[in-house]
Amino acid sequence: MPPLPQSIALHIGAHKTASSHLQHMLYRNRAMLADEGIRVYGPGYLRLKGRNLAAMFGLSWSESPAPRRDPRKQLAFLAKGRRRIVFSEENFVGSLYDSRGNVPLPVYPTGAARVAELVAKFAPVDTHLFIAVRNPATYLTSAYSQCLLGGVYTTPRAFRARNDWRKVDWADYVAALRATPGLGELFVWRQEDYAQCHRLVLRRMLRWRVGAQIETVDHRVHEGLSEAAVKQTLSWAEEGRTGPLARDARAAHPVGPDRRPFALYTPQTLELSQARYDEQLARIEKIEGVTVLHPPQTAQKG
Q1: Of 18, 88, 168, 241, which sits with the fewest C-beta atoms within 10 Å of its C-beta?
Q2: Residue 199, CB half-sphere, CA atoms under 13 Å: how many?
Q3: Cα distance from N-terminal residue to C-terminal residue, the chain
Q4: What per-residue string of b and e applies to 220-256 under the rule 16 or more CB within 10 Å gives b?
Q5: What pairing do the DSSP bridges indicate for beta strands 126-133 and 7-11?
Q6: 8 burial class (0-12, 13-18, 19+ CB within 10 angstroms)?
Q7: Domain of life of the organism in this record (predicted)?
Q8: Domain 7-161+168-223+280-298 maps to which CATH number in 3.30.70, 3.40.50, 1.10.10, 3.40.1710?
Q9: Is the pLDDT of residue 121 over 70?
Q10: pLDDT at position 299, please?
Q11: Where are the domains of the chain?
Q12: Are the CB atoms for 88 and 25 separated by under 8 Å?
């Protein structure tokens, strides 16, 4: 049997925290990373039929047939002789929303159990976990836009009624993940800091020297919706128009100097959410075994 990898980096989002940007960089640099002893698997591989993590490692909630390889052989197969594997897939811990536009709250209620089962399958290989968090209100704002892009045409009022930003508690979620038996290091960063600290994230994920070699991506991978695009999308949906309505509306009404980004909440609510978020981050900083990654100018841990 080919050798097992020495370590695994598991990146699980969260959704709408620049995961696609990070995955795009990893994919762009996959050849260099393979030469440096690192195999990378992202959504392009892990969302193919039978290739999601639950299916490949025979997790209890998988709907696929039992895998042909046991976990050790599967890891060796995926490593292909490399020392480290990086898995990046935010959908592993759960969906962002359901068919009615409901965001699971508290966030990812089955996420910690899924991670624990996967880490047990990876043993004895060390697994290190990576997760980004975000202001609860802006997280749900992006989730609403994603609902529209996914064809769930609920109104802002209905979405707010179904999804209470006060139920988004990242500290509880991180604490549950940290309790995973056998888990190695757990790294957390704020989505709001990503542009300033993504190089540090890469160095921790890929090891210090290799992360510094990554060719970065200087543009946004997914553009958000403007207020005009949201209004147009809902108007088209009410008229019975079919097709990728939100995508068409985004192309017709992109965010720009004369088109404001869509805002789901008032400035007053955003301030309240920020205060709640700051309190959660303070709790996360105190969780033993968690390293919070900060922009270099405000580095506190790590």
Answers
A1: 241
A2: 10
A3: 36
A4: eeeebbbebbbebbbebbeeeeeeebbeebbeebebe
A5: parallel
A6: buried
A7: Bacteria
A8: 3.40.50
A9: yes
A10: 45
A11: 7-161+168-223+280-298
A12: no
Q: What is the mean pLDDT of the chain?
A: 95
User: Distance between CA atoms of 28 and 106, rounded to whole angstroms?
Assistant: 34
Identity of the residue numbered 291? T
Residue pointed to by tokens 């594997």: 85
**Token pair of 155 as six digits:** 């109104």
DSSP SS3 for 133: strand
pLDDT at 301: 44
How many other C-beta atoms are found inside a 10 Å radius of the C-beta of residue 53? 22
Tokens of 235: 């108007």
Q: How far is CA 58 from the centre of its chain?
A: 22
Q: Could you report the per-residue pLDDT of 159-202, keeping only the tens digit for each?
A: 999 999 999 999 999 999 999 999 999 999 999 999 999 999 99
Structure tokens at 69: 């390889």
> DSSP assignment, residue 167?
G
